[in-house]
Amino acid sequence: MNLRRHDKPKATMRDVAWEAGVAQSTVSHYLNKTATVTPETKRKIREAIKKMDYRPNMVARNLKTRGSSILPLFVPDITNPFYSELAKGVADAARRKGFDLVLYDTGYQRNREGDYIEMALRQQAGGLVIGYNLLDERLWDRLEQTSTPAILIDVYPPNDLWSSVVVDNEEGIRIAVDYLSRLGHHDIAYLSEPPYLLPLIKRQREFIRVMKERGFEVRREWILVEKQQVNRVKIGFTLGKELLSSPLRPTAVITSSDLVAIGALNAFLSSGIKVPSEISLVGFDDIILASYVHPSLTTIRQPKFDMGQRSVEILMKLMSASDQETPVVEIIPPQLIERHSCAGVR
Amino acid sequence: MNLRRHDKPKATMRDVAWEAGVAQSTVSHYLNKTATVTPETKRKIREAIKKMDYRPNMVARNLKTRGSSILPLFVPDITNPFYSELAKGVADAARRKGFDLVLYDTGYQRNREGDYIEMALRQQAGGLVIGYNLLDERLWDRLEQTSTPAILIDVYPPNDLWSSVVVDNEEGIRIAVDYLSRLGHHDIAYLSEPPYLLPLIKRQREFIRVMKERGFEVRREWILVEKQQVNRVKIGFTLGKELLSSPLRPTAVITSSDLVAIGALNAFLSSGIKVPSEISLVGFDDIILASYVHPSLTTIRQPKFDMGQRSVEILMKLMSASDQETPVVEIIPPQLIERHSCAGVR
DNA sequence: TAATTTTATGCATACGTTTTCATGGTGGGA
DNA sequence: TCCCACCATGAAAACGTATGCATAAAATTA
Questions:
Q1: CB of B71 within 8 A of CB of B312?
Q2: How do residues B226-285 score in pLDDT, each as one tens digit?
Q3: Which pLDDT belongs to residue A147?
Q4: Same CATH topology for B13-56 and B68-167+304-332?
Q5: Residue B209: other Cβ atoms inside 10 A
Q6: How is residue B189 annotated by DSSP?
Q7: Nearest nucleotide (C1') to alpha carbon of B35
Q8: Which nucleotide does the CA of B36 lie closest to, via C1'?
Q9: Contacts of B141 in chain A (CB under 8 A)
Q10: Of the options 3.30.980.10, 1.10.340.30, 1.10.260.40, 3.40.50.1100, the CATH number for the domain spanning A13-56
Q11: Which terminus of chain B is more exposed, N or C, with fewer CB under 10 A?
Q12: Are B288 and A100 inside 8 Å of each other by CB?
């Protein structure tokens, strides 16, 4: 009854073949270049395709080839700029390989992780990109049983079965300390969110180690580590205030992440402490925000976009390998991004 | 040769049926509750499923039912916090309806838009969520021809064929002006990114209209609209500086978006102008960043998460409607989020 | 107990492709 | 002229599921 839309039934390959006066398999051969076909028939097929507005049905194709053109990405919170940049890199590389990125945002909810992995497998995903350390450790076993390859990002693999892409966390901290040191700082504090993940633990350990190695004193009251909260900016704010209440004030601060740094920055500014003239600040990650705050944040960059891309490349290799490849752990070098939150000590 | 992984072939419904000693169709009926089945057979099937570690193949299912369990979302840049929050809302609602969110990030590239829509259709997507105004207008016709329903977000539909979800832009501006007015401001400037989209045009027009209506003077040099650049924070910075160079300085500023506001904030701070004591600032959108800068930004909130959710609901209705529904344009009320970038005029 | 309805299960086909293999036609070398 | 290699096309069988329909068994009624 409604004339506005005709609702043509979708054309199938059979329709195209009929229109072109050839067999359905010939059309398939033409599309997939899986057999030679005469220029003349090519022409007819092309025209038929155009005329019928034919569009290959990927679902049927995937069923037949037992493949899948989706690439699942697991993140805890796409709203976190770290993960959205990562997602962009993964999506970009996936696209280039002909995959569609499907987003699984678990919201840090343990039970969702298992459900979402299940969904991904039902979609016949041939591999997974896991962008953070899953909360539910039992999933590693379950995943291993399905023999579905996966690549972890920013995670040190829980055992020697998994591949991953991580930034060189120790090197990042070294770069930060040495940079501040070159500016004349040696009274340096370290503020961290709860170090429940290996990357954070490594950063903290390396901070202490390198400070000692450089001959700088490390004071307990300058190593402030949050135990409870989850909101990183609030953590930074709290810890920043706490640091200011200490009788001795450092001349510089390194944080475990940019979000913590931004919180600390707000703490300092709201206490009337000038950054960077009174206190210097170095973050970690280089999320977009870092360049937006005032003063803009000097930070240790994790090349998230590149890490996303690289992870897809590795995963593709794992997926196409007939045999079990030996897992790789790829270490990406971090990079100092100099902006305006650091100054020389007077 | 490799003993570490057995690579069991995936169990199919047939395998389960065989194991349980029933017919494949019975298993299907059991799983889909499409026929009554004896408790005893249920038990056998359940056990077989567990034993074989069976997992339904969605690809086959989708082929058979000519459906699709994916929901494509188009955004220009997932890295932009506005879109990542939107994506979260869409993903959440989609999940609840049993759909997987696949992310199409066009990177503001015209030619990608068409390609990605093509990919989405090949995946047999039954509907699209389009999170921004497509650059390539020809796509509207093409989309209309395929008779695939779509829902637009933050976009006024190009014609009366499409449904959309938009915030009440005029109301948002009114709220901002009236809020500042209550604080005693009447010298208010407006800074805007290039108004190439209807929402931005509306905001600007409404600003002028409501200022006049309230009896406030609108000065040409206080309405600063960028023409060239794309980076919104830079735009804000440039415009902010430009505003300061004007002989008369307003006591308050409204911007077209939070990112512009943050740029302007940086411009003010770096010129030694105190915010909010010397100048008040109101943004638009309420992206997460708004609460992270110092001082935190008072802004007009677009409920992005809710808008994402609502759009999925509407789209689902469109998709299940056998007949062509009459398109709906849903207007969402904005909301004032009071933070610390505004002060009463002394 | 026979007739009838209800309940539980299975058979067979189709969804839109890919892919193996067979077949008829074409041309070149001897 | 005959044989063989090659080339272009097609026929047919899957891939793993949903579903209409038939059927056998059980339950109900008379």
A1: yes
A2: 998 889 999 999 999 999 999 999 999 999 999 999 999 999 999 999 999 999 999 999
A3: 87
A4: no
A5: 15
A6: E
A7: C8
A8: C8
A9: none
A10: 1.10.260.40
A11: N
A12: no
